[in-house]
Amino acid sequence: MSERRLLILYGSQTGYAKDTAYRIARQAWRRHFSVSVRSMDQVDKWSIFTTTHPVIFVCSTTGQGEEPDNMKKFWRFILRKTIPYDALSGLNYAVFGLGDSSYQKFNFPAKRLSRRLQQLGGTSIVDRGDGDDQHYLGLDGALDPWLENLWTVLLDQYPLPRPIVPESVAPDPSCDIDYIDEHIDTSVGETELIPGTHLAQLVKSDRMTAPDHFQDVHLFEFELDDSTQIPQWSPGDCAVLRPENLASDVNDFLQQMNWTEHADKLLQIKPRDESIIPEWVPRCTTLRWLFTNYFDIMAVPRRSFFEMLYYFSSSENEKERLHEFTTSEGQDELQTYCMRPRRTIVEVLDDLPCSRVPLEYIFDVFPEIADRSFSISSASAVTPHRVDLTVAIVNYKTLMQKPRVGVCTKWLLNMELGRTIGLRFAKGTMKLPAGPTPIVMIGPGTGIAAFMAFIGDRISRNISANYLFFGCRNEHGDFLHQEQLQKWVSCDKLQLFCAFSRDQENAIYVQQRIREQGDLLWSLISEQDAIVYVSGNANRMPDDVRQAFTDVIADHGVDDAAAYVQAMVKTGRYQEECWY
After folding, report:
1. 416: Cβ–Cβ under 8 A, 6 or more apart, which residues?
2. Measured over all CA atoms, what is the biggest interatomic distance in the chain, rounded to whole angstroms?
3. Residue 422 in 3-state DSSP?
């Protein structure tokens, strides 16, 4: 009988693909497979050519159909043209993608990966799975049947040596955690930095929208530390922040878990597999540090959270409820209880007072705080030491009594001026032309953020062919960066077209302004090879804007205007960066 081993590789941006990979690993453990779980960039890339056991790939989608950051190196590697066409002829693989079908490039990383593995001779043991956030059961709507099929195929090839471990048996913890018999100061671990991090001091935190406007949009300015090498970032790049939980939230949580007495006592963490915990997390630290800096206690818990919490409940009623949340039949109820009202981990634990997590299982139950990326609003060519962020504060209501607030934006709002934090830089998906090619920017709301850097950079190079279509509700309510934009207009460095949707009886949106300026836009596109950029909320705006450009092009005599726009997309002359 062949050796019962599986390798699970994930590409994950916000943690969902990683969570899915470990869920598959737990199911494999119950079926007596020896399992290794790694991000794609963690694994020895050359080993993929010699592996004799099945490899399961799980990858999410980020940006506009881009692969996650911890998959990029692996992806570039297997795209090498020097790799023989039959290099993976011995590989049996399965691919599951996580995406959202409302995006045009739904599950592109998984589709491209599956195609490339097949091109190199690999054998897919099951059809690719496409998880879809738009499914009424979320990603699980596709994942559950895909896993059922996967195990049927694998167990046919690798028969069970003994019965499947029952769902009632808890898997082993991934770490050994013990208290060290001494007390220490609560600052333990605060100096730990993720590789590539630059220190920056908050020097400005101003509300940009009117006090009576429903949406709070803030401008945060950070001054980079002179003692480190000042990084160069390009217009369109993002600042990546890893937020912290507020001290008050952490205190409440520690009390809820009955850990207050030991919150500042030193812990020794010994992972059974070093890949479980990032290198930057100290192996000697405290519960307070971990639940401030690493674990996301304010997250909406995923199915795996309930799956693990089930093992630690002392109440039969709570166990029954938790079990239902982990079944395929119970997913609609889980959506109603947790996902739709955006109930947090803290609130769930309030509802389940007899369900408490043992210390050694904290890395198996609580999710990691995800990085947050924000388009940079300042140009390094103009202010090389300053990073500006235009941020919409997340604060909304659901059926829950308390408003839902964003972990990162709450952290930023409560940050004192002068505080130094770490930030990293990441490439954005929109790229400026090097020369004086005209650019047309469509940026309603906070979609304007990256365009402030675009315009500032081009003006510093004495390029004035800049055209911005900006939209918001009210000129006096949420006209973001109004003063700076009007200054550029007065200097003939920018042509600005605004749509204030609620300042007149009939709503006006950016797509109407685009149609009004059809002659100008067609001249820029057809005669000067202008590049169009679209940034902002992905709900309806991108489709409406694309249709407006299609109409403009059709009005100027192009028979297949939709194909014309699609050709612009393929050549990089029509770029979108939109989000929900």
Report:
1. 202
2. 80
3. strand
Q: Which two tokens stand for residue 313?
A: 């409940």
Q: Which two tokens stand for residue 245?
A: 């939980």
Cα 391 to the chain's mean position, in Å? 16
Output the pLDDT for position 227. Answer: 67
Residue 412 DSSP SS3 = helix
Specify whether the CB–CB gap between 273 and 421 falls below 8 A: no
Produce one character per residue of 278-291: b if its CB has 16 or more CB atoms within 10 Å, e if not. eeebbeebbbbbbb
- 121 by DSSP, 3-state: which? coil
Query: Which two tokens mark 382?
Result: 């103009």
Q: Which amino acid, 506?
A: N
Q: How far apart are CA 241 and CA 220, in angstroms?
A: 12
Tens of pLDDT, residues 284-298: 999 999 999 999 999
Q: What is the pTM of this model?
A: 0.90
With vertex at residue 471, the alpha carbon angle to CA 516 and CA 483, rounded to the nearest 5 degrees, is 110
pLDDT digits (tens, 9 = 90+) for 311-364: 999 999 999 999 999 988 898 899 999 999 999 999 999 999 999 999 999 999
CA dihedral 544, 550, 556, 559 (to 10 degrees): -150
Residue 1 has pLDDT above 70, yes or no: no
- Average pLDDT of the segment spanning 225-234: 79
